[in-house]
Amino acid sequence: MKCKLRASVTAVAVVLVVSSAALAQIRKEYRYTVGPHAAVVVNNQYGPISVTAAPGNQIIVNANQQSDKVEIDQSQNGDRIDIVTHLLSGASVENARVDYQLQVPAGANLTLHSSTGPLHADGMRGDVTLEGAQADVQVRDVSDAHVHVRTLSGPITLTNINQGHVEITSIQGNVTLEEVSGPLVQVNCTSGRILYDGDFGSGGQYSLMTHSGDIDATVPGYAAIDVSARSIKGEVKNDLPLQPKHTPFPPGTNTFAGKLGSAVSSVKLFSFSGKIHLRKKQ
C-alpha cells in the first residue's frame, strides 16, 4: 500500500511569473517523496545545476526559467525522478537558461548534465555522474560513492572525497583534487593541468594522466605510496625521499620511481609533453 502511495505522489508546482520588457522569469518548485537510493536525473541544456544533500525522504527542485522559450518536463517513476529542460521555438543560449537548485536525500544517485553549467554536488553518499561541455564542475564532501565526471573544457574541482571510485575525463579543462582518496582514482586529460593535494589514501590505485598538461602533486611526508612518474618530453621533478626502484621505462625518458613509507597505494603520473612535479607538503 505504501509503495502505491509513493508511486502516485505527483509533483507540486508553484509558479511565479515576473514580467519585464526583455524576459519573463518563471520560478517553479517541484516536490517528490522517494525511498532509499532514489535516482535523480537532470538534463539542462543551458544553465547551472546545484545539488545539496538534505535529511528526510523528499526531493525538492527549484527551477528558475529565464523566459517562456523553454518548458520543464518532469516525471516520477517509483524512486526515479527525471527533470528535462525542453527547448521551444525561438530558444537561444540567453533566453533558454534554467537555473536548478535541488535538495535530495544524501543516499540518492545523481546524474546531471548541462552544456554550460556550472554543476555542483555537495554532501552526497550515492553515486554522482556529472557531464558538461564548458561546465565548471565542483564536487565536495562525498563518501563511499562513485564519482564520474566528463567535460570538454570546463574546470573540475573535487574536494574531500573519501573512499571514492573516481573517474574523470576532460579535453581542455584543468582538474584539481583536494583530499581525494579511494580504491580507484583515475584522471585523463588531453591538455588540461592536473593538481593533486592529499595523501593518496590507503591501498588505492591512482592514475593521473595528461597529454600536454602539467601534473603537480603535493603529499605529506607520512604518505605511503609506490610512485612512478614519466614524461616523454617534459621535465620531471621529485622532492620526496623516495626509496628508488627499477622501472620498465626505456633509457632517455624523463622518469622517476620509488617508494615512500609502507607503500600501500600505487600512484602513476604520466604526461607526454607536460612537466611533472611531486612535492612534499610543508
Can you describe this structure?
The protein is mainly beta. It folds into two domains: 1-116, no CATH class; 155-282, no CATH class. 2% of the residues lie in helices and 55% in strands. It contains one helix and 26 strands. The strands form two sheets. The protein has a 13-stranded mixed beta sheet, with no helix packed on it. The protein starts with a helix and ends with a strand. Residues 1-23 have low confidence and may be disordered.
Care to give the gist of this entry?
This protein is mostly beta strands and 282 residues long.
Category from helices, strands and their pairing: mainly beta
Which residue ranges are poorly predicted, with pLDDT under 50 across at least 5 consecutive positions? Answer: 1-23
Rg over CA atoms, rounded to whole Å, is: 22 Å
SSE pattern, N- to C-terminal: HEEEEEEEEEEEEEEEEEEEEEEEEEE
Note the beta-strand portion.
over 45%
Mean pLDDT: 90
How is this fold's topology laid out?
Elements (H helix, E strand, L loop, with lengths): L1 H7 L7 E3 L6 E9 L5 E6 L4 E6 L3 E8 L4 E8 L2 E8 L10 E8 L3 E6 L4 E4 L5 E5 L4 E7 L2 E6 L4 E7 L2 E6 L4 E6 L3 E6 L4 E4 L7 E6 L4 E5 L5 E7 L4 E3 L4 E2 L9 E7 L4 E7 L4 E5 L2
Parallel strand pairs: 3-7, 3-9, 4-8, 4-10, 9-11, 10-12, 11-13, 12-14, 13-15, 14-16, 15-17, 16-18, 17-19, 18-20, 19-25, 20-26, 21-25, 22-26
Antiparallel strand pairs: 1-2, 2-5, 5-8, 6-7, 21-24, 23-24
